[in-house]
Design goal:
Blueprint lengths: L3 H11 L5 E4 L13 H9 L2 E7 L16 E6 L8 H13 L3 E8 L7 H9 L5 E5 L2 E3 L2 E3 L5 H8 L7 H5 L12 E2 L7 E2 L4 E4 L2 E4 L8 E2 L26 H17 L5 H7 L3
Parallel strand pairs: 1-2, 2-3, 3-4, 4-5
Antiparallel strand pairs: 6-7, 8-12, 9-10, 10-11
Length: 274
């Protein structure tokens, strides 16, 4: 359980006039089940945007504050939710009525790719954005996103005109060992648990003050967004609709992986025609 007074004090001490972006995480569980969820959201939304991942299984009235401003809900459409998709959709619409910016998130495992076009039409008809995410893991003995074909990648992203370069680059992030590469975690990104403050969710070592510059990543399997100093997902927005900019970012990723001995050039040639 969080000490809510300490949480208020910590956020007040950040003194960031542009606001703070907070992303809630809850391991393999459901954040909206946390007994303090309404209090936590109320504190965080007064300091900026709060991003909440949810399986959308709980009625929003049970976990949302009365005012949903500054809350961004990422509602994951799991296969079991497809069996009662109207209820899933209606809960998103109810969040929107509370002022929440709520979207549907769909993980493109190989067996679900053919559903993308139909689902996008279904949700768009109600004014709901559906975001298609690349699958990271093993399916039928194949490792993804390495094993996506160009045809599958095109199916994933040709249906989402609002994709920026960071979303488009996901299927190509075949290596997420960023250890030793300078990262902004600890400076612009922190993980706050009830007992410690860490650089990020994946680095368990506690920190006692905010970093003043980018420092080398210390984990070999990063699951967060790109917060690398040379390639980060929020300061380098560029023209997200510009294919040239996307290609530049993709080449920058591969260059980093080569320069830090994470990836062999021949491996890249098999996946991406440089």
């Amino acid at each position: 359980m969080y000490d809510l007074d300490w949480l208020k004090s910590f956020y007040n001490g950040l003194n960031n006039p542009n606001g703070v972006v907070t992303s809630l995480e809850c391991g393999a569980s459901e954040p909206t089940m946390h007994p303090q969820i309404k209090d936590i959201l109320t504190i965080l939304q007064s300091h900026g945007t709060v991003s909440v991942p949810t399986n959308n299984s709980i009625n929003p009235n049970r976990w949302l504050p009365a005012d949903g401003r500054n809350i961004f809900a990422r509602c994951a459409l799991h296969p079991q939710n497809e069996e009662n998709i109207d209820k899933f959709r209606d809960r998103i619409l109810e969040m929107k009525q509370h002022g929440v910016d709520a979207i549907c998130c769909f993980c493109a495992t190989p067996d679900r790719i053919e559903k993308i076009e139909r689902l996008k039409e279904y949700f768009n008809n109600k004014g709901i954005l559906i975001r298609i995410n690349a699958f990271n893991g093993v399916y039928n003995g194949k490792k993804y996103p390495d094993s996506y074909t160009e045809n599958e990648i095109n199916k994933i992203y040709s249906h989402d005109e609002e994709k920026g370069w960071y979303d488009r680059i996901q299927p190509y992030l075949i290596i997420k060992d960023f250890s030793s590469i300078p990262c902004f975690a600890g400076k612009y990104l922190m993980y706050i648990s009830p007992s410690t403050i860490q650089k990020c969710l994946y680095d368990p070592a506690p920190i006692h003050e905010i970093e003043t510059a980018a420092t080398p990543c210390r984990v070999k399997n990063c699951g967060c967004g790109l917060f690398l100093e040379e390639l980060n997902s929020w300061m380098q927005s560029g023209d997200v609709s510009n294919d040239v900019f996307f290609q530049q970012q993709l080449k920058k990723y591969f260059s980093l992986m080569i320069n830090y001995d994470k990836l062999d050039f021949n491996k890249i040639r098999k996946i991406y025609n440089q």
